[in-house]
Amino acid sequence: MSDLPKETEEAQECPCSQEHRAEAALSAEKGETVEIKGDSVVRSAMVVMLAMIISRVLGYIRDIIIYAQIGQNSYTDAYNAAFKIPDCIYMILVGGALSAAFIPVVSSYLARGEKENVWKFTSVVINVISGLMLTLVIIAYIFAPQFIGFYVSGFDAETIQLTVVLTRIMLIQAMLMALAGICQGILQSFKIFTPTAVGSVVYNLGIIVFGAAFSGLIEKHFPGYGITAFSLGVVAGAFGNFVVQAQALRKVGMKYYLSFDLRNRGFQKMIVLMLPVFISLGATQINLFVNAGLASHLHPGLLSALNTAQRLMQLPISIFAVSIAMAVFPVLSREAALNQLDDFRKDFAYGIRTILFIMIPFTALLIALGVPFIRLLYEVGKFNSGNTQAVAFALYFYSIGIFAQGCIQVQNRAFYAFQDTKKPVLVAVSGVAINLILSFILINKLQQGGLALAFSVAGICNMVFLFLLLKRKIGHIGLKEISVSALKTLIASVIMAAVAFGVAFVSESLFGVANKWSQMLQLFSGGSAGLLVFFALARWLKMPETETVLRTIKKRFGRTNKKRTA
């Protein structure tokens, strides 16, 4: 039995209010460009990807310095655990809820040409959020021993004390990141993405410089506290990130007002949109604390192994999926406001297909070459082969859910474009529940791998739920095209993984892995052979995603060459 009539009815009601739709239509009549096709989205995303890649390389350098100097042990467990409270405060107030509600409100002002109201609204947001952040930071500073003793009860007394010290240092970072996050929201509303990525580069540089320069000195005078240098670096990096965002605001003519006008129309609208997301983020943060608490009862170093694996899993998501989602979000928001559902469906499906085209091969490569990858990156100094195996074990299970986490980046923004934050929240809360239940069940059998597997299964469930709800909301969303593309990508990826694993095995048999050159040869030969096979199969299967990426690169280099010739 078809449910198309119901879907069609919802599609007519869901994009936006009648007032907002009329405003968007008026801006279209004024001649504003409202359509950005696939190539344009990719070009926008590529600008962000480049800086993201640089940032991730620096992140790797940061991690290798920490593990080489400190090791993967109780000290790095304390360092990783110390992020939880500052990150919780930031995510609840800025990182998730604000970003979901802030950009649509600013975009609606810009669509009406009310730039002055943008600055009045953003000033109120800056002032109110800063006040709330400062209050929470002070409370967290005072009660840090109680909070930490509760959620990482598996740590010994010395490790808990170190975690308290590191947490109190990093609370300063939460305040700076909040201000930077608001600035990023403003810039992204103006479709300016580069400062967001450049700021992450500066952030990692701060950690590297301070950590490398002062960890030994601090360890010499305060034995056991050398890791605090990296926490000070976190604060320095966060300050640098904020400066980058604040400087970029000058390009859009930012005006600041010392106003706490809670009756501001945009602020009230933002609060309404934020409330459902608060519920989701609250549940998510509880989940993170529970997982950290469970991991604290494992063998020393396994919490750090879990965090390292998670960062590696996040590589393709943060570099590619987030970049694509950031680029497509303003497009989807405008199309939703104008009720251009056909264009919305095409751009949404294109974003999902592109993400799957990237995420599925990454999953296959991480599974096939996980140990060689981790060994090359981290096995130096106090980081040994046992640490490599501990990280790889968690990474295998995290890899299973990479494709789902990538899709969720676009799916959530599709709902936010319709100013619908309730449905993603309900899905996120259900995912948290699934994650928690599976974490308690699987940790006993698989330890850190069980926590990673629970996360992946919950992510896949979230992705499926979001697809079903979006289809119910706007009708067909190109699931057939998405499924066909995903199946072709999966076939090519499985063959690629088999080739990569085989070549890596032969390389290890012939040359060993005793030094970094042989390790690099193993990873490079296996990865290169696998990728060549994948792209050859993708071309043979006539996948349009391959042609689009190649065409975009050619256009970009073509323009560069023309400029040089001129």
Identify the notable features of this structure and list them briefly.
566 residues, mainly alpha, 84% helix, 0% strand
Description:
This protein is mainly α and 566 residues long. The protein has a domain at 74-277. The protein is 84% helix and 0% strand. The protein contains 21 helices and no strands. Helix 5 packs antiparallel against helix 12, helix 14 (341-378) runs antiparallel to helix 20 (516-540) and helix 15 runs parallel beside helix 18. It starts with a helix and ends with a helix. Residues 1-38 and 556-566 have low confidence and may be disordered.
Architecture blueprint of SSEs:
Layout: H1 4-13, H2 18-29, H3 38-69, H4 74-81, H5 84-95, H6 97-111, H7 115-142, H8 144-151, H9 157-189, H10 194-221, H11 228-248, H12 265-295, H13 302-337, H14 341-378, H15 385-399, H16 402-417, H17 422-446, H18 448-474, H19 479-511, H20 516-540, H21 544-565
Helix pairs in contact: 1-18, 3-10, 3-13, 3-14, 3-21, 4-9, 4-13, 5-7, 5-9, 5-12, 6-9, 6-12, 7-9, 8-9, 9-11, 10-11, 12-17, 13-14, 13-15, 13-16, 13-18, 14-15, 14-16, 14-19, 14-20, 15-18, 16-18, 17-18, 19-20
